[in-house]
Amino acid sequence: MVNVINTKANTTLKKILQLIPGSTPRQEFALKTRAIEYNTIIIYNVSTAISALQKGNPKLAEELANDAANEADDCESQIFSGKSPLTTENNVMHDASVITSAIVKILLKMLN
């Protein structure tokens, strides 16, 4: 499931980069800020979560998945007033991250 987060984050990042040309300066700033956040999910959250799972630290993987869900929520609430052009992607990213966190939490309970 961590790979699903990676795929969804990459898809969203590509869309953000496609939206930047032609956007207003305010929208461009917001989109570039969101691009940094999604890039962080890809580079840090995903790789660290995979490493944590491989090293037997599912709690860290759970926290990183929750963090990715929170980033998607922040992206949705802060990007534009009204409906964001990234609503679908942010919602999918949020859901994938929450599901990943729940799966890891179940695994954690099974280990204890």
Describe this structure in words.
InterPro entries: Invertase/methylesterase_inhib, Pectinesterase_inhib_dom. GO terms for molecular function: enzyme inhibitor activity. This is Pectinesterase inhibitor domain protein. The chain is mostly helical and 112 residues long. The chain has a single domain (2-111), classed as Butyryl-CoA Dehydrogenase, subunit A, domain 3, CATH 1.20.140. Helix content is 84%, strand content 0%. The chain has helices spanning 2-19, 25-54, 58-78, 87-111. Helix 3 (58-78) packs antiparallel against helix 4 (87-111). The model has no long low-confidence stretch (mean pLDDT 92).
* Tally of separate helices: 4
Largest sheet: none
CATH class type: Mainly Alpha
Shape, please? elongated
Distance between the termini: 21 Å
**Strand portion:** under 5%
Per DSSP E runs of 2 or more residues, the count of β-strands stands at: 0
What's the structural domain tally?
1
The fold-level CATH name is Butyryl-CoA Dehydrogenase, subunit A, domain 3
* Radius of gyration, CA atoms, in whole angstroms: 15 Å
**Topology order in helix (H) and strand (E) letters:** HHHH
The residue ranges in which pLDDT falls below 50 over 5 or more consecutive positions are none
Q: What is the CATH homology-level superfamily?
A: Invertase/pectin methylesterase inhibitor family protein
Helix-and-strand structural type: mainly alpha
Helix share, percent: over 70%
Mean pLDDT: 92
Protein name: Pectinesterase inhibitor domain protein
GO molecular function, one term: enzyme inhibitor activity
InterPro entries: Invertase/methylesterase_inhib (IPR035513), Pectinesterase_inhib_dom (IPR006501)
